[in-house]
């Protein structure tokens, strides 16, 4: 490798790192604004035009706040946990292609940090390392609420990780590659979201649970567990957890875009000097759309009860994921004599996926109540 | 192949420097005025008690972790199959169907045994009266306890936690 | 020495130090964390040998699932959490076991790969497609046997977990 290669490599890494930081700042602002809009408030307005700098201001404030180390805490592990929360979050994004390759200094530079052969598996590995941040934060704080929150959210994350892997396997089967760039290339005609719609639904649900976002934010159910695993964290240490969580949100959205929504591909490619800009803009637009859906879900649905969360993961998502993996195998492999099987399988898949979403919403909204007589009894 | 990992190593270093650097920079710039109350574990002002001291957590959590390992291994086997099943054709599909089918038998067994049931706390209609009785008993007992004059030593003990 | 070998020396050193730390750590959760480092180093070694898929599966399964189960066990039961010492004073027995295992494994490895032989170059592709065709064509029977092992493990887990309710 020559000097220019090194400059390009380090430059790309710094670019992605800074872009992720800035996008996290903007997405947090966007989330607060959109949620405020749902609730007919104005949201943050003070810092910068329409409050766009509010996250930056918050981060700066947290930076200069006192950080408390509880007396019961296991100090080395306590300090390690926020670092573990940050690093895998950034690493998971490394395999995502965010634009078409560009030519700089006569070299073709892919707009992707690392096109690993095991691309999708890398994402899962980083997710499973990210679980440690939660476990260790909860255990090392030496306090009850963090411990309870950590145990809960670890069980939740590992449960939904299985269903998420099954959804990813279905996509890999359909495109025949583990490499992210190949999966994007394979979607040049039809985005995977159409033939793999059930996997898309399973992935979106599991990704919400995986990053502990509402309605699956039981780790920090403030009415029961104060703030869950990061109750005892304050100042910059808390800020790192928050950063990691939002980088993870961006990453799972970017994976949804890459695997299901055609990656950086768009209908209106830019031409001429700005030819590289079009794909990047498409990518950003799609990621923003997925994050908007997540914000919409947060603003709409109540938090799930823990027993229903686990029931839903184990009794609905996993068997459905297994079914869909075998169905995808049948679609691809079996000879199709009459030419209708592919369509029939997809129709079944879409119907079951819709039923899955309906059952999730039902689990969220229904509340068995004690008999009326007992309610009177409680009131006395 | 390993050269592919170079950007990732650079990224890991950058993220690590960012995390450690911001922790260290903040520790130099921020105020540090600890006191015992501030440093005690958050427990609404009570003296903190370490939780798994007397009783255990629900064994369900442990079961979930065990089931997770088994299903994780199953899905890991799906990954190499997903890449190469086109060339394996029908044989590969049957092979995997047998594999998934066998694990699915165990899955159904666990379901029937109630291994996935978390809803131990779900209130069935005929249980409601019982629950009310229990709540009422708790309520009256705590009223009696409140009526007692407070123990002086207990107050001093609680003072440390604020 | 080329870059691969330097990388191996670094990874092996870190893994070995962490392995020693697993058994010398006084805190059981710290020991589990050192175990994570050791297992990750094993995964990295696979990676350096060109077995990319196996390396990441090692990390995914052992680091991401099995040590999590250990930590769950430690957190959920009355295992000595905190600063309780983890020392049962059985140094002599431990030393004997360690020496016997080291001699056994060492002689096995030396028999399989004598010192004079050149190390295998990391050229064999260990991608998931190669692995897939090997696993599903050549080793069909062991693969299906694995599903029986998983079946047994699942049933064992449920029986252990539900023993207290007498079912």
Attribute tags:
heterotrimer; A: 380 residues; mainly alpha; disordered C terminus; C: 167 residues; 2 domains; 6 helices; 74% helix
What's the gist of this structure?
The complex is a heterotrimer of chains A (380), B (162) and C (167). Chain B has 162 residues and is mainly alpha-helical.
Please specify the SSE layout and strand pairing:
The complex is a heterotrimer of chains A (about 375), B (about 160) and C (about 170).
Chain A: H1 3-38, H2 54-63, H3 75-93, E1 99-104, E2 107-111, H4 119-140, H5 144-175, H6 180-186, H7 197-210, H8 222-225, H9 235-260, H10 277-300, H11 306-333, H12 341-365, H13 372-379
Antiparallel strand pairs in A: 1-2
Chain B: H1 6-29, H2 36-39, H3 59-113, H4 128-147, H5 152-159
Chain C: H1 3-24, H2 28-48, H3 52-76, H4 91-112, H5 128-138, H6 140-161
Helix pairs in contact in C: 1-2, 2-3
Question: Would you kindly provide a written description of the structure presented here, covering whatever features stand out?
Answer:
The complex is a heterotrimer of chains A (380), B (162) and C (167). In chain A, 67% of the residues lie in helices and 3% in strands. With 380 residues, chain A is mostly helical. In chain A, α4 packs antiparallel against α5. Chain A has one domain. Chain A has 13 helices and two strands, in the order αααββαααααααααα. Chain A is globular, with a radius of gyration of 22 Å. By secondary structure, chain B is mainly alpha-helical. Helices cover 69% and strands 0% of the residues of chain B. Chain B has five helices and no strands. Chain B is flat. Chain B starts with 5 loop residues before the first helix and ends with a helix. The C terminus of chain B is likely disordered. Chain C is an all-alpha fold. The termini of chain C are far apart. The mean pLDDT of chain C is 80.
Structural class of chain A: mainly alpha
- Strand runs of chain A, count: 2
H/E order of the elements of chain C?
A: HHHHHH
The oligomeric state of the chains shown is heterotrimer
Count of individual domains of chain C:
2
Which structural class matches the secondary elements of chain C? mainly alpha
